[in-house]
Amino acid sequence: AQKITQTQPGMFVQEKEAVTLDCTYDTSDQSYGLFWYKQPSSGEMIFLIYQGSYDEQNATEGRYSLNFQKARKSANLVISASQLGDSAMYFCAMREGLGGGSYIPTFGRGTSLIVHP
Amino acid sequence: DGGITQSPKYLFRKEGQNVTLSCEQNLNHDAMYWYRQDPGQGLRLIYYSQIVNDFQKGDIAEGYSVSREKKESFPLTVTSAQKNPTAFYLCASSLRTPGYTIYFGEGSWLTVV
Q1: Is B92 near chain A, with CB under 8 Å?
Q2: Which of A53, B8, B94, B101 has the lowest CB atom count within 10 Å?
Q3: Phi and psi at residue A86, to the nearest 5°
Q4: Is the pLDDT reported for residue A46 higher than 80?
């Protein structure tokens, strides 16, 4: 079974509008971390935002916010006021404990976001 | 500046050859990882290492080998046993806590010719 599921292979948004990228996860751990990364066409992986499983508040970083719904095991990324430079692949990732202090990062298949002018 | 350095950026390999991708970090991270990414796909874990002189297979370890003789270095060898090696390879490192960010190198493009 997939640990991280991103159901939207591709998304289109108009410049200056908000967009939500979906991510659901599967874990039986109580302590885990959720991450979003941006991958432009150059290939580098850029860290965007982090949410801890014990965090009460949704994480925010500038135009990025993470809509964390623990009971639904959902960690959606919201990008407000989209810009042309936001066009990229976006990956949701999770670190969960596997025992012995191992927190192996696993990634979803990604969502391709295209921002139209 | 601290970071992860991968080399080479682009590599061409003839069939039947082994090639080694370098990954060096100066972030003092214990954990290091190798991922493979195929076009339009997510990241799949090849190998990971939590401490020096120890490493574990990931989901797609067949045809690959690694070593971790130093904390800073985690080279990946793509052997001739790997049937479809053409891909983008990403090295990453982190501290061994769930809340710590995973840092990536810039990646290496491997093409079999």
Answers
A1: yes
A2: B8
A3: -80, -10
A4: yes
**Interface A-B: count of C-beta contacts within 8 A:** 69
Taking the CA of residue A109 and the nearest CA in chain B, the distance in Å comes to 4
pLDDT digits (tens, 9 = 90+) for A49-101: 999 998 889 999 999 999 999 999 999 999 999 999 999 999 999 998 655 55
Per residue in B80-106, is it b (16+ CB within 10 Å) or e — as a string?
eebeebebbbbbbbbbbebbbbbbbbb
- Contact, A37 vs A46, CB < 8 A? yes
* Maximum CA extent, chain B: 41
What mean pLDDT is predicted for residues B78-88? 91
Q: Are B102 and A47 within 8 A, CB to CB?
A: yes
Please give the pLDDT value at position A115.
Answer: 98
